[in-house]
Design the sequence.
C-alpha cells in the first residue's frame, strides 16, 4: 500500500539488543533532550500582571453604543435577539417621554436589555443584525463570577460611558473599533 | 560527686545533633517538594509555582497547610490500628537512616571534639539496609490496612520491587566494601578523603550505576514508581489516605530521596570531601562547615538528577521492571563484584 506521507516508519519487532535492554543509552538521550528545555523560552503569559494582546477583530464582551452626543442608539427592535443562535439576549422596550431626547436617539428605547454571558457564544451575529450600530463586541472577555446570576449582564454593565461627560472612559471602552 | 559514670555532655551533644539533623532533613524535604515542582516546570517550559511569596517560596507551607486542613478519613472497613501505623512507620524508617551518615568531620567547641555524625557504628551500611527494608513495611501495611484491592496490589508490587532491587543494590555495594574493607560509613568516607586516594566512583563506575538505579527503585521514583502508578492503580498504596497521613507518605518519599542521595554521596563521591582541597590544613571548624556544604551540594545534585530522570522517563511495565532487576542488574552486579575481587587480588600480588 502506498503510504500517505513520507513520514511513515516500518514497525520493528526484532528483539532488543543487550545495550537496548540496559535502557541507559536511551535514557541518557532522553535526558539530554529534557535538559535542553531548561534553556528554552517559556511561552507562559503571567495572566493578571501580563495580558495577551487581542487582535482588533476579537469578539469579546458586548457593548451598547451611544452616538456622539451621548444618546443611546438602541431602539429595542429585537433583531439582535432574533439573530442570536444561543438565545442569550432579552429586552423590554419603552417609549421615549418628552424631555428625554438627550438620553435616547429614537422614540423607542430599551428599558431593559440583558445578555446571559453563560449562553452567549460570542459569534457576533447580534452585531451584524443591528440596524442602528447599537451593539458591538469589544476586546475584553467576561471576568469570572461566583454566581450564575452574576453572568446576566444588564444595561448597567453593557452601556458604554457617555462620550460627552466621560470621553476617556468612552475611548477606553470603545477600543480600536470604529 | 558524679551521679552516674555517664558522659552527660555526650548525651546532650547527640540530642542536639539529632534535633538539628531531623529538623534540617524535614526542612530540606519540604523544599524538595517545591524543587520538584520547579524542576518539572522548567523542564517543561513552564514557570511553575510562583504565586505564594517571592518566587513561590512559600508554596511548600501552603501545601502543608492544605494537607493539615483536609478531613481525616479512616475507611470503615479498614484495619484501623494498622491504617494509622502505616504512614508513621514509613516516616520513622525514612528518618532513621540519617543517624549513621557522616555529615562532616568534627567541630571543636571549648576544647571538646564533636563528631558531626549521630552514631559511628561499625556496621553503618548494614544498618541503613536494615532500616530501608523496614520502609517496605510502611508501604505494605498501608496498602493492606486500606482494604482496597488497588492499594493491596500496589503494596504487593512495591514490596516485590523493593526486594528484587535490594539484592542488586547489596551486590553492587559488596564491591565498595571490598575496596574500603569496612562497613562503617565514616571509614569509607575517610578512605576516600585520604591523600593519594580517589573517590570510589573512579574504581566503581559500573557499581555506582547499578546502585543508583536500585536507589531509584528503592525510593519508588520514576521510572520505578509502580507502587504509585497513578494511571493504573489510582494512586497506589496511599489511595485511601487523606490529610496529614497522606502527607507523611509523600514526605517520607522525599526524605528517602535525600537519605539515599546522602548514602550515594558518601559511598561513591567522597561524602563531605571537597575535591583538590586538603582539609587537614584548615582549622577544624572551618573544614567542618565546608564539609557540610560539600555534602549538601552533592545531595542537591543527586536530587536534581532524580527529578530530571522523573520528568524524562516514562514508567516501566511490571514485567520490564522484573526483567531489568533479575536478568540485568543482578548479573551485572555479580560481574562487577567478581572483577573487583579479581583486581584486588591481582594488585595484592597473590
Sequence:
Amino acid at each position: 500500500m502506498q503510504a500517505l506521507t513520507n513520514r511513515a516508519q516500518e514497525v520493528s519487532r526484532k528483539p532488543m539488543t543487550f545495550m537496548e535492554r540496559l535502557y541507559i543509552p536511551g535514557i541518557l538521550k532522553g535526558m539530554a533532550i529534557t535538559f535542553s528545555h531548561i534553556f528554552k523560552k517559556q511561552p507562559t503569559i503571567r495572566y493578571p500582571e501580563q495580558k495577551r494582546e487581542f487582535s482588533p477583530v476579537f469578539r469579546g464582551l458586548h457593548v451598547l453604543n451611544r452616538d456622539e452626543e451621548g444618546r443611546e442608539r438602541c431602539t429595542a427592535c429585537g433583531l439582535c435577539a432574533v439573530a442570536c443562535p444561543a438565545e442569550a439576549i432579552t429586552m423590554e422596550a419603552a417609549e421615549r417621554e418628552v424631555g428625554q431626547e438627550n438620553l435616547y436617539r429614537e422614540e423607542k428605547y430599551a428599558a431593559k436589555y440583558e445578555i446571559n454571558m453563560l449562553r452567549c457564544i460570542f459569534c457576533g451575529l447580534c452585531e451584524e443584525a443591528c440596524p442602528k450600530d447599537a451593539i458591538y463586541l469589544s476586546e475584553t472577555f467576561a471576568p469570572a463570577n461566583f454566581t450564575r446570576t452574576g453572568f446576566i449582564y444588564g444595561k448597567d454593565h453593557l452601556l458604554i460611558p457617555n462620550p460627552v461627560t466621560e470621553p476617556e472612559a468612552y475611548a477606553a471602552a470603545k477600543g480600536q473599533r470604529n | 560527686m558524679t551521679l552516674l559514670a555517664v558522659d552527660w555532655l555526650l548525651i546532650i551533644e547527640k540530642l542536639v545533633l539529632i534535633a538539628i539533623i531531623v529538623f534540617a532533613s524535614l526542612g530540606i524535604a519540604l523544599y524538595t517538594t517545591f524543587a520538584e515542582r520547579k524542576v518539572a516546570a522548567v523542564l517543561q517550559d513552564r514557570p511553575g509555582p510562583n504565586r505564594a511569596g517571592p518566587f513561590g517560596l512559600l508554596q511548600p507551607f501552603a501545601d502543608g497547610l492544605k494537607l493539615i486542613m483536609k478531613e481525616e478519613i479512616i475507611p470503615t472497613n479498614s484495619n484501623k490500628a494498622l491504617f494509622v501505623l502505616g504512614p508513621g512507620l514509613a516516616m520513622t524508617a525514612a528518618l532513621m537512616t540519617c543517624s549513621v551518615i557522616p555529615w562532616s568531620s568534627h567541630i571543636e567547641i571549648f576544647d571538646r571534639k564533636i563528631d558531626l555524625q549521630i552514631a559511628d557504628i561499625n556496621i553503618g551500611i548494614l544498618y541503613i539496609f536494615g532500616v530501608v527494608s523496614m520502609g517496605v513495611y510502611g508501604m505494605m501495611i498501608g496498602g493492606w490496612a486500606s482494604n482496597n484491592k488497588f492499594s493491596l496490589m500496589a503494596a504487593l508490587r512495591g514490596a516485590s520491587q523493593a526486594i528484587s532491587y535490594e539484592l542488586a543494590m547489596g551486590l553492587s555495594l559488596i564491591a565498595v566494601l571490598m575496596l574500603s574493607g569496612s562497613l562503617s560509613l565514616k571509614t569509607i568516607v575517610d578512605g576516600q578523603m585520604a591523600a593519594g586516594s580517589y573517590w570510589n566512583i573512579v574504581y566503581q563506575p559500573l557499581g555506582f550505576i547499578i546502585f543508583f538505579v536500585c536507589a531509584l527503585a528503592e525510593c519508588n521514583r520514576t521510572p520505578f514508581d509502580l507502587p504509585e502508578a497513578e494511571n493504573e492503580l489510582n494512586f497506589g498504596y496511599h489511595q485511601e489516605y487523606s490529610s496529614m497521613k497522606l502527607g507523611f507518605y509523600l514526605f517520607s518519599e522525599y526524605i528517602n530521596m535525600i537519605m539515599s542521595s546522602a548514602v550515594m554521596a558518601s559511598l561513591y563521591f567522597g561524602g563531605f570531601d571537597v575535591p583538590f582541597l586538603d582539609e587537614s590544613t584548615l582549622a577544624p571548624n572551618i573544614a567542618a562547615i565546608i564539609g557540610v556544604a560539600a555534602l549538601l551540594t552533592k545531595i542537591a545534585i543527586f536530587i536534581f538528577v532524580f527529578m530530571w530522570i522523573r520528568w524524562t522517563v516514562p514508567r516501566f511495565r511490571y514485567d520490564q521492571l522484573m526483567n531489568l532487576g533479575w536478568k540485568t542488574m543482578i548479573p551485572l552486579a555479580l560481574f562487577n563484584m567478581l572483577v573487583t575481587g579479581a583486581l584486588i587480588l591481582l594488585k595484592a600480588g597473590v
Remarks:
- Chain A has a mean pLDDT of 86.
